[in-house]
Amino acid sequence: MARTKQQQPESNPSLSIKSVTKSSVWDIQENDVIRMWEAACKDAEVKENVKHYLQIFKSAFFIEDLREDTAPIRKSYEARGYKVALVKFDDNMKFIWAIKKRPISRVTDLTYENIRHITAAQLLEVIDRNFGGGWDSLSQSVQDVIQSGFDISTTTLPKDRLHKKGGMYEKKVDDGYEVLEVSKGGWVEAIFAKLKPEEVKLRMQIKSGDDDDDFDEEDDDADVVVEDNYSSHDEEDEEVDGPNDDDITEDNYSTMMDLGGEDDEEAAELIDFSDE
Predict the structure, then answer these.
(1) Using CA atoms, how far apart are residues 39 and 51, in angstroms rounded to an integer?
(2) N or C: which end of the chain has fewer CB within 10 A?
């Protein structure tokens, strides 16, 4: 049996009709559904798309459309755990709904949409109801759904060795795993489960200095065309003409050196040296 008792997931009051998805809808309870629909009764877009939004809620809730709201009918549904509410858009468009959260009590109730909206303890209780067959008794498709949201590991040991001090059982519990023990004769299979941390996908963006628009780096690179003009620069460099020795004469040759006047002592020495 699982080590901890089942806990009810907390509701998410920040969700609205337009923001709820087939995944986040599992975060809310019956009273939240009623509150959200009552708040959306003045929204023209919701009114025009009731069927669309209703389908999202039906992925996580049983929603019965009642013809009338009489005391016997209301009591009948409430006795089965439903909440009954009147959702009125106008005098010509109103609904009487009986609403109840879909239970996750069997492994076939697990989906990719709801797997991250239950606790590890709840998951192990669901597995425990699967005829007590342990992890290998689950189909591959069910295992894939579970492992999309939870880290799972198992070990099978004799009863007297399972809780050995310093062993795998103790280490997993200390690391925050919940444990389900499945008896198999003189042996016990321990199934360890821990909710995986949610992955956050980072996207690099480059902000232009001229405006506030963001551009994806990969998109910018796709638009850049690089021209190879390196060889043309080499050709220009090679075309620079050098001096022709035949054109140099005594009249046009200059060392570009300022020897100064005769009053300059250092310049005078250079003059004397040049006269030699």
Answers:
(1) 17
(2) C
